[in-house]
Amino acid sequence: MSAEPKKKQITLILAALLYIIGLGGIHRIYTGHTMVGIVQLLTMGGCGFWQLWDLIQIFQGKFLDANGNPLES
């Protein structure tokens, strides 16, 4: 059974807006990376650096969901 493709725009919004208020990792949970998302949430996005790296990956189109699929535009 295939999971619904995750949207790039939603992932970007979750990563960027929640980065501003210190809730890093919600975008990871959305894309199926639950454990990594919880770790990011507990560490405030890896003190912001991990979250920033993810934002760059999303912008470049290199961020993948938990199944290894690229995000849907």
What topology does this entry show?
Layout: H1 8-20, H2 26-30, H3 34-42, H4 44-47, H5 49-60
Task: Walk me through the structure.
With 73 residues, this protein is an all-alpha fold. The protein has one domain. 59% of the residues lie in helices and 0% in strands. The chain is built from five helices and no strands. 25% of the residues are buried.
Write a concise keyword list for the protein shown above.
59% helix, 73 residues, mainly alpha
Provide a brief overview of the structure:
The protein has five helices and no strands.
| Largest pleated sheet | none
Task: Report the helical percentage.
Answer: 55-70%
Average pLDDT: 89
Instruction: Show unreliable segments.
Output: none
Q: Based on DSSP secondary structure assignment, what is the total number of beta strands?
A: 0
- Oligomeric composition of the shown chains: single chain
Strand content: under 5%
What would the principal axes of the Cα set say about the shape?
A: globular
- For the termini, the CA-CA separation is 22 Å
Written as H for each helix and E for each strand, in order along the chain, the element string is HHHHH
* Total tally of structural domains: 1
Tally of helical runs: 5
Tell me the radius of gyration. Answer: 11 Å
SS content category? mainly alpha
